[in-house]
Amino acid sequence: MNSRLGGPPKTPWHLWVIGAIAVFWNAFGATDYTMTQLGNIEWITSMGFDEATAKTMLDLLGAAPAWADAAWALGVWGGLAGALLLLARSRFAIFAFAASIVGVIGSMVYQAGADYPPELAEMGNSPMMYIVLSIAVLLLAYSVWVQRSGVLK
User: Fold this and answer.
1) How many CB atoms lie within 10 A of CB 11?
2) DSSP codes, 87-128
3) Residue 150 — very low, low, confident or very high, per pLDDT cuts 50/70/90?
4) Could you report the per-residue pLDDT of 95-110, keeping only the tens digit for each?
5) In this predicted structure, what is the pLDDT of residue 95?
6) Is the CB of residue 2 less than 8 Å from the CB of residue 10?
7) Is the pLDDT of residue 135 over 90?
8) pTM of the full predicted structure?
9) How many helices (H) and strands (E) does the chain have?
10) By 3-state DSSP, what share of the chain in percent is helix, strand and coil, each rounded to 5?
């Protein structure tokens, strides 16, 4: 049945494109979170940090309070779940993306107040966090829009 006859609307092409990009974007965040939690120094050095700075970064992240680590996890895994749920055309993508935003904001609060050494000072107010937050908000807004269009179940 198609939407003209009263059935569910056809999945628009842009959902597949945005959903696939969202999965790749959030999979990178999940990989970063996992590699950092595992203390993978090679992962950190592959981003351009020397080994000493990478070790300092891992030590600082390892010493973060549980709430900050939980916020990071919520941001990362909420985003990945939202992207996968979007591709599955599930209305629960909205809740997952909203949870991701809460996690990103929590991470930003922690990073803004943390005491970083000079070589990692940019972590405290990283422009990347604003990019991450903006993308999370856009994915939530897109999910709400396609939900209202009847595309998400």
Assistant:
1) 14
2) HTT-THHHHHHHHHHHHHHHHHHHHHHS---GGGGGGGG-HH
3) very high
4) 999 999 999 999 999 9
5) 98
6) yes
7) yes
8) 0.89
9) 6, 0
10) 80, 0, 20
Looking at residue 80, its amino acid is: L
d(CA 5, CA 28): 41
Q: Which two tokens stand for residue 54?
A: 């990478």
Residue whose structure tokens are 């198609």: 2
What's the CA gap between 56 and 72, in Å, rounded? 19
Residues 6+ apart with CB under 8 A from 87: 15, 16, 19, 20, 23
Q: Tokens for 31, please give them.
A: 């990989």
Tokens found for residue 136: 């999370």
Residue environment code for 70-108, b if the CB has 16+ CB neighbours within 10 A, otherwise e:
ebbbbbbbbbbbbbbbbbebbeebbbbbbbbbebbbbbb
Tokens found for residue 143: 């999910």
Residue 124: per-residue pLDDT: 63
